[in-house]
Amino acid sequence: MGDFVLSCCSTADLSASHYENRKIKTIPFHFTLDGVEYLDDGRMPIDKFYGEMAEGKVTSTSQISVQEYEDYFEEFLRQGKDVLHLTLSSGITGTFNSAMIARNELVSRYPERKIYIVDSLAASSGTGLLMDKLADLRDSGRSIDEIRDFAEANKLRINHWFFSTDLTYYVRGGRISKAEGFLGNMLSICPLLTVNAEGKLKLREKIRTKKRVYERIIEIMEKLADDGYGYSDKCYLSMSACLEEAQQVAMLIEENFSQIKGKVLINNIGTTIGSHSGPGTVAVFFWGKERSE
């Protein structure tokens, strides 16, 4: 294993034990709940977080500052380690720019070190799925340059498909109107969204009933995943306080894609992404055709 650090933002939405086992470092975003600021570092119980949202507590988020990135990266540089860091998509937040400013400040002070910042163009466990692949490459003996090149060449192959069973937070976030949200909830409409090639959220379809959106996920995965029903890589799923729905989707994927690598890994959508999605969101991530729009 090379003498370098693999790192990502806390918004990769993997568990603390997962990061530790894969030797992946993280730096937390910030979120505010009911006027109090916290770090997105897993210390707040996720059930408490979503429970307070469901009670109407207001949430907001703020990205990692340039100084925070600088201090974080410098800790590794002082140890003589190079750094490869993946940020949350630039189509969602400006954190990539902050990380780059910090990087540019540090390269003049540590000219012998490599500091690579990769815009993941991904979110939640989509970034996590990419990070896991980079950890596999590191463990197989690949250099930091080879891993950086792989990330840049393959990051758009991480497919994101997600839906919500509760439109309340789409209304609060301004993504849909109050009238659309009211009607959608009455008619059990589940909006199906993706992250596009620019790393931005894009509404693809409005599907009525959870059963039909589950079926649609399988249809889309068969069309886009590597080798279709023969897909043999990992599949990650993240959810916000809707474990039953997530388990049903995971079961359907495992039934239809029998060659999948291991079980579908179900993660929690963390406090940063969850501040905007709210409870009731299920997201599926897999390797497949490159996002082109």
Write down the overall mean pLDDT.
93
Structural class of the helix and strand makeup? alpha/beta
- Main sheet summary: 6 strands, mixed
Low-confidence stretches: none
According to DSSP, the number of beta strands is: 13
Q: Roughly how many Å apart are the termini? A: 36 Å
The whole-angstrom Rg is 19 Å
Strand order of the largest sheet: 10-9-8-13-11-12
Give the amount of beta strand, in percent: 15-25%
- What overall form do the CA principal axes indicate? globular
Helix content: 25-40%
Order of helices and strands: EHEEEHEHEHEHHEHHEEHEHEHE
Number of helices: 11
Secondary structure: elements and pairs:
Layout: E1 4-9, H1 16-21, E2 25-27, E3 30-33, E4 36-39, H2 46-54, E5 59-62, H3 66-78, E6 82-87, H4 95-107, E7 115-119, H5 125-139, H6 144-154, E8 158-164, H7 168-172, H8 178-186, E9 189-195, E10 201-208, H9 210-224, E11 235-239, H10 243-256, E12 265-268, H11 271-277, E13 281-287
Helix pairs in contact: 3-4, 5-6, 9-10
Structural account:
With 293 residues, the chain is an alpha/beta fold. It contains eleven helices and 13 strands. It has helices at 16-21, 46-54, 66-78, 95-107, 125-139, 144-154, 168-172, 178-186, 210-224, 243-256, 271-277, and strands at residues 4-9, 25-27, 30-33, 36-39, 59-62, 82-87, 115-119, 158-164, 189-195, 201-208, 235-239, 265-268, 281-287. A six-stranded mixed beta sheet has the order 10-9-8-13-11-12, sandwiched between helices. Strand 9 and strand 10 form a beta hairpin. Helix 3 packs across helix 4 and helix 5 (125-139) packs antiparallel against helix 6. It is globular, with a radius of gyration of 19 Å. The chain starts with a strand and ends in a 6-residue tail after the last strand. The mean pLDDT is 93.
